[in-house]
TrEMBL record:
Residues binding 2-oxoglutarate, per UniProt: 166
Single GO MF descriptor: iron ion binding
Family annotation (InterPro entries): Oxoglu/Fe-dep_dioxygenase_dom (IPR005123), PKHD_hydroxylase (IPR023550), Pro_4_hyd_alph (IPR006620), Pro_4_hyd_alph_FE2OG_OXY (IPR044862)
Keyword Metal-binding found: yes
Cofactor or coenzyme needed: Fe(2+); L-ascorbate
Domain spans labelled Fe2OG dioxygenase: 77-175
Coiled-coil intervals, chain numbering: none
GO biological process per UniProt: DNA damage response; intracellular iron ion homeostasis
Residues binding Fe cation, per UniProt: 95, 97, 156
PROSITE patterns listed in its UniProt record: FE2OG_OXY
Cofactor note as given: Binds 1 Fe(2+) ion per subunit.
Protein name, entry field: 2OG-Fe(II) oxygenase
UniProt entry keywords in alphabetical sequence: Dioxygenase, Iron, Metal-binding, Oxidoreductase, Vitamin C
Length: 224
């Protein structure tokens, strides 16, 4: 699990927040799988409208371009995103995300899930994203504009919202690197490259060797 802070600039966050008031909302169970449908109680936006399409594309493009998302997730495909609204009394009980989503060319394996928070934490009480790991339950409630990426293999839930409204932008990623341990190695290398770039000149043997190592590992491990 990784937290990526300040994914959205203040300008993009402000534009997205204003758009929320213009969206049409529908029962969130519409897109849930058979198991999740029984524990899902929230609303999600109709993103087929003009405003919905605009805000969806703006947020997804921002996520895709973020260097930490690229380095950590190594995205191959993104599932169609959702914007969810969880109000007072609403919740999304413990569930697991569908392992495969979409049809035809849009079909993908869900390796990673992400939640991009659009509401500041003081705007609602409760509503923590709780992720069940082997060792403990991680409780996540981030500032507006920040996101968490976590394995789609983990059980998770949204705690009941006691007051206020919680808005989030969510989607799923099929990584080009199927194995989580291999992704972790590549993420370490990406971070090492940033650090070494401060210590060695561009084109140095050290940086070239590290770039070669990264490229050859990707060549060995990538689905495409």
């Amino acid at each position: 699990m990784i937290v990526v802070e300040n994914v959205l600039s203040p300008e993009v966050l402000s534009e997205a927040t204003k758009a929320l008031a213009e969206l049409r909302w529908e029962d969130g169970r519409k897109t849930a799988g058979a198991t999740a449908r029984r524990v899902k109680q929230n609303q999600q936006a109709d993103l087929t409208s003009r405003t919905g399409t605009k805000v969806r594309d703006m947020l997804l493009d921002t996520v895709k371009r973020h260097p930490v998302v690229e380095a950590y997730a190594r995205p191959l495909k993104f599932a169609p995103p959702l914007i969810s609204r969880t109000g007072a009394g609403d919740t999304y009980g413990l569930h697991i995300d569908n392992p495969v989503m979409g049809k035809g060319d849009a079909r993908l394996r869900t390796d990673l899930s992400f939640t991009l928070f659009l509401s500041p934490p003081e705007a609602y009480e409760g509503g923590e994203l709780e992720i069940e790991t082997v060792f403990r339950t991680e409780s996540v409630k981030l500032p507006a504009g920040s996101m968490v990426i976590y394995p789609s293999t983990e059980l998770h839930r949204v705690a009941p919202v006691i007051s206020g409204e919680r808005y989030v932008f969510v989607s799923w990623i099929q990584s080009a690197i199927r194995d989580a341990a291999q992704r972790a190695i590549l993420f370490d290398i990406a971070n090492l490259k940033v650090g070494l770039a401060r210590a060695f000149p561009a084109g140095s043997a050290e940086l070239l060797t590290l770039a070669k190592t990264e490229a050859n590992l990707i060549r060995m491990w990538a689905d495409a």
